[in-house]
Amino acid sequence: MACRTPIGQLCKRASQPSTLNFTSKPTAALWRRGSICQSRSFATPVPPVTQNATSSKGPTAMVFMNMGGPSTTDEVGDFLSRLFSDADLIPLGRLQGYLGPLLSKRRTPKITQQYAAIGGGSPIRKWSEYQATEMCKILDEISPETAPHKPYVAFRYANPLTEEMYNKLLEDGFGRGKGGRAVAFTQYPQYSCSTTGSSLNDLWKWRQRLEGKSVDTKSDNDGTINWSVIDRWPVHPGLVEAIAQNIEAKLLEYPEDVRNEVVLLFSAHSLPMSVVNRGDPYPAEVAATVQAVMQRLGHSHAYRLVWQSQVGPSAWLGAQTSDTVTNYIKKGQHNMILIPVAFTSDHIETLYELDEEVIGESGHKDTIKRTESLNGHPVFIRALADIAKAHLDSGMACSKQMGLRCPGCKSERCAESKKFFAGQQLAI
Question: Fewest CB within 10 A of the end CB: N or C in the chain?
Answer without folding.
Answer: C
